[in-house]
Amino acid sequence: MANVVSQGAQERGTRTTRAEGALKAIAADQESPERLRRVLEQALVFAGAAFAAVYAPAQDGELLCLMESAGVPRTLYGLRDSYPRAGRSPVAVAHRGGRPVSLGPAELAADAQARRVPSGDFFLTALPVQGDGGCLLAVSERPGGFTADDLRCLELVSEAVAFTAPAAPAEAGDLPASAFSLAMDTGRVRVGDDLLDLFGLDPVEFDGRVETLLSLTVPEDLPSLMSVVEADHMSIGDRELEFRVLQPTGPPKWLRLRGRLLPGGEGRPARLVGTVVDVSTLRSDVTDVARVQRLAAALATAVTVRDVGKAVVAALRRPLRADRIALAELESERLVVTVLDPPEPEAWPELWRSEWRTEWPDAPVRAMPTLAAALREGRARIWPAGSPLERALAEVGPGGLAVLPLPAGNRMAGACLIGWDTPHDFGTDERALLTACAGLAGQALVRARAFDAEHELVGMLQRQLLPRSLPRLPGAVAVARYLPSTAGLELGGDWYDVIPLPDNHVALVIGDVQGHSAGAATLMGQMRTALRAYAVEGHPPDVVVAHANRLLMDMESDLFATCCYVDVDLEEGAAWCVRAGHLPPVLRYPDGRTDIAEAEGGPPLGVVARADFPMSPLRLPPGTVIALATDGLVETPDSDIDEGMAYLAGRLAEAAPTDMGLVADALLGNAPRSDDVALLLLRYDGMDLRPLRESWTVWRVPQAVGHARRFARRTLRSWGVTAEYDAVLLVVSELVTNALVHTDGKVRMDLTLVNDRLRVAIADASPRSPVRPTSIGWEATGGRGILLVEALSATWGTLPVSGGKQVWAELVLGR
């Protein structure tokens, strides 16, 4: 036992000694502009901190402002860029009291300033800096927080800070040769002469605009550079990056930007200050701490499990000169491999290919006892060449193998395997690099897994709110596509529907609810259901949309919706279009011409209580394609909606409408994904056989039933039906009698013949449907009519129509 205690004390002493040595080496380099940042990075290496920062008094003396930081983004912990000096934040209390302040998850949850933290437990420690230098703030995600040895290392870091707040330069000439100062409100930038030389600009001709510098960068590097120079996207992990500048001749030049955001005070804007240096010849000479910082920056923006794996591979494989890296999630005692680099099967041992199949999706941990032991211990394990390992691991790294358990709180999120083919010497710095990277990757893996699960849930909910399939239509083919936005996880409000209606009509509906949220998706489902219900009731298109508008107004929602409703008569090849603040249909005619329909529109639904929604006619020759889309398909930040509609019409003209699924896929091929996209297409082919129709108004006179029978007989004779009169006339008699006896108002009879199938439909003004009796006694005086209709008909039923119902029966005739 004494030996164990002595060994532990020796390890602690060694860690403290190494920290002191590293801090002394950094302090000796007085000329380095990154001295403070390098000091903070030692808190990550030696104290196991996930985040470390220095807050210093601002010039006005009222605030403690964030001056430098290292580690994962501070926003993950709800930390701000400044705190009132007289407030009760841990930073302010430690600064005023001159003593350390430590808070655990329970205290942070009770603190009002910490309630903005998204999720996860962590420990926070604030230590005062000597003099009036401010305060050192450190965060740990390990169970139990900082140990006594960790706190000792943090004290050494706070002693080494010796911070002096940078003063704002008054003149451009005050800037160092490679430095810059960017005003975040105006975009005006002051730069040193050497920096302008790196960009190939003449100091006399430089206009002082940051856009001028950005225009000289390689376009592929511009998004990452904009994330640094725009205040809204500034994050801790993005304060250092490398980018390329175009040269008049030869390859682009690699530059490294390092900067920090200085918050503005009273009457002063926030400024981004830092340096830009040439690293074209030094790109391979990157310190291990810089690699950790770069990995932290990449993991801060990784949203999926695969993104995390790619970031880990990019951060470790080349610097360690490894031959292969595998990243796997731990799920119920099984390792689910998510990323393999290199991805080629032949680069991996034969045992992996045979046991884990081609894609190596998973493997039981118990099959590799050495790996299981490393996961139980929860710390990085390294085996040099020749170590006795089970075959599944030995062949991954015959020249050396490193196994990194990926911790996340009090459990293991997964493991990372790194293998070398030739003997590899593991230095102390490499071990520290692996340990630091493992902690960052574990936390990122848990966040990414939650993102993937939420993304799948969002997709499932979205699919449940949209039609599972589209109906088969006589004389037409309809297809639809929906693509959710890739910009986030929120539910969208785009929807579409195809509603079969009586008399071979079909309603095409597409719409968009304002915003992206659960509320927008819920309202979308309500609007789709309401429009379908009003359409099936038999209302004309303008009434359907007006009813939906009134319903949305009555719901008192803060959201509005747009909608385009097209009622297509498949027999006549005509349609009526109603628009409520939505895009008009695009028509592609059989000869390839396209036309954006000039359909008059009304306001969006839910805006004006008594709004008019005019109907516009459309003519549809056989072969015409109707395209309905939401604005996500045609509108981008770089182009207006008219240009997008013209582009959609052009793409539709180029498409061959033989396969409507291929047409829809082609139209969505280059669709921007910053917004949801819904697309509904219908190709009208025309009906090969048009039904025969006749209608009769039944007057309420004593001979009404006899008149209806005579009308039915004459109609059948004119259609060439010469048999089975009795069955048809009996059905007509029973249905007309029921309508006259049990309802008031108008009664109408419709006869429709398609091939040998006759449909008798009686419409009345009562919404009550006839009820089929379960049993009838011999003394009953009624109730047998519906039983007769059921016995004589192939099928029968009722459906709602505007202001009443329709009772119908279909009979199969011999002609």
How would you describe the overall organization of this protein?
The chain is elongated. It has 22 helices and 33 strands. The strands form six sheets. The protein has a six-stranded antiparallel β-sheet, with helices on both faces. Helix 9 packs parallel to helix 14 (428-465), helix 15 (518-536) packs antiparallel against helix 16 and helix 20 packs antiparallel against helix 21 (725-742). Helices cover 34% and strands 26% of the residues. The protein has 815 residues and is an alpha+beta fold. Mean pLDDT is 78; it is low at 1-12, 112-119, 163-173, 233-238, 282-287 and 356-361.
Key terms for this structure?
single chain, 815 residues, alpha+beta, 6-stranded antiparallel beta sheet, 22 helices, 34% helix, PAS-like_dom_sf, PPM-type_phosphatase-like_dom
